[in-house]
Amino acid sequence: MDFKRFTVGNYSYGSSDPGKVDYAPGVTNVNFEDPTFFEHIKDSSHANYENIQRYVECLGLCHTIIVEEKEIKGEKALIYNASSPDELALVNGARHFGFAFEERDDDNNMVFDYYGETRRYKLLNVLEFTSARKRMTVIVKSEDGRYIVVCKGADSIISARLKPD
After folding, report:
1. Tens of each residue's pLDDT in the chain, 165 residues
2. Which DSSP helix (H) or strand (E) runs through 86?
3. Which among 117, 119, 124, 113 has a CA at the least distance from the CA of 148?
4. Is 145 exposed, middle or buried (0-12, 13-18, 19+ CB in 10 A)?
């Protein structure tokens, strides 16, 4: 799977036929191009800015990725090892958008680089994906004290559990 398109708020981003994009060393399973998205993610006054921030944060938080450091073309790069190509695509998508998972530290914090700023989220619980549940859930606590529950999975499973409004 490649990360190509998504919808957040009232906007759809990406292209079904993206051009050549240069990705950071180690970024795989991403084939995303959309100049409008990169304008919106940087413009804090844009109507969709907060939605995009939450979406990218969710992409980056809900996973069981293991990180390795390797040298690629003379540069140190973080390589993600994932349980599935889908998980790899989603977390590398967040990385491409500036929310790069770096490690799980000794205190069970998920550590991210967000445009040069280090962010830590205390990992409180992981409900692993199973074929019966058809979804995965993580519960974290952000540095500002917010509790965040992120669930990802099959559309048929997630949609059935959403409120109609």
Report:
1. 899 999 999 999 999 888 888 898 899 999 999 999 999 999 999 999 999 999 999 999 999 999 999 998 888 899 999 999 999 999 999 999 999 999 999 999 999 999 999 999 999 999 998 888 899 999 999 999 999 999 999 888 888 888 776
2. helix 85-96
3. 124
4. exposed
Q: Which pair of tokens denotes residue 14? A: 């990406």
Paired strand residues for 153: 135
**Spatial contact of 78 and 87, defined as CB atoms under 8 Å apart:** no
Beta strand segments in the chain, E? 5-8, 11-14, 66-72, 75-81, 99-104, 109-114, 117-127, 135-142, 147-153
- What is the rounded distance in angstroms from the CA atom of residue 18 to the CA atom of residue 16? 6
Residues with Cβ within 8 Å of 91's Cβ and at least 6 positions away in sequence, in order, are: 59, 60, 63, 65, 80, 82, 101
